[in-house]
Design goal:
This protein is 5% helix and 41% strand. It is mainly β and 168 residues long.
Length: 168
């Protein structure tokens, strides 16, 4: 299990006073504000949210020490992390962090090996599971829906995937 969890990502600068667009990856979209300072992926930079307001499908945030548009623009696409121990514990077997899926075996409903979960992606239309295939061919991209991924078993370290039909 990952020791650090990505909870948000800074988007583009917003306005000229150093605000940024911010996209949340938490179940409760504003929850990341209660986890304390956020950090860059390498843990070398810390960020404190001074103000936050909702906007269309994202937040607009003011980050301490970011005073103008140029400083805000330098943060574009920066992912923000917190230590896993600062997050609420997972108490339900059907609840997990996306990072918990990385490295799980991906199998078909009949048990055939597809590969290993390499990433959970989201390009705006919903989560997608990226599976590094067992044969080393191109990765398999599967929508993370109950129809395509009917079973997630963290304890058994596997997911069941109904592969999409092949297009000829």
């Amino acid at each position: 299990m990952s020791e650090r969890i990505c909870v948000a990502q800074i988007g583009a600068a917003h306005g000229v006073r150093g605000e940024v667009k911010l996209r949340s990856f938490t179940q409760d979209p504003a929850a990341f504000t209660s986890y304390g300072p956020l950090e860059s992926e390498d843990g070398k930079r810390r960020f404190e949210i001074e103000t936050l307001r909702p906007a269309n499908e994202h937040f607009v945030a003011r980050i301490a020490g970011v005073a103008d548009r140029d400083a805000a623009a330098k943060l574009t696409n920066l992912k923000l992390y917190v230590s896993r121990d600062r997050l609420p514990p997972v108490e339900d077997d059907n609840t997990y962090y996306h990072s918990d899926l990385i490295g799980l075996a991906a199998v078909t409903p009949d048990g055939a090996t597809l590969g290993t979960v390499r990433a959970v992606l989201n390009y705006g239309a919903g989560d997608i599971i990226e599976i590094a295939t067992a044969d080393g061919s191109l990765p398999l991209m599967v929508p993370f829906t109950s129809a395509a991924v009917p079973t997630v078993d963290i304890k058994a370290r596997r997911i069941v995937v109904v592969p999409p039909p092949l297009v000829e």
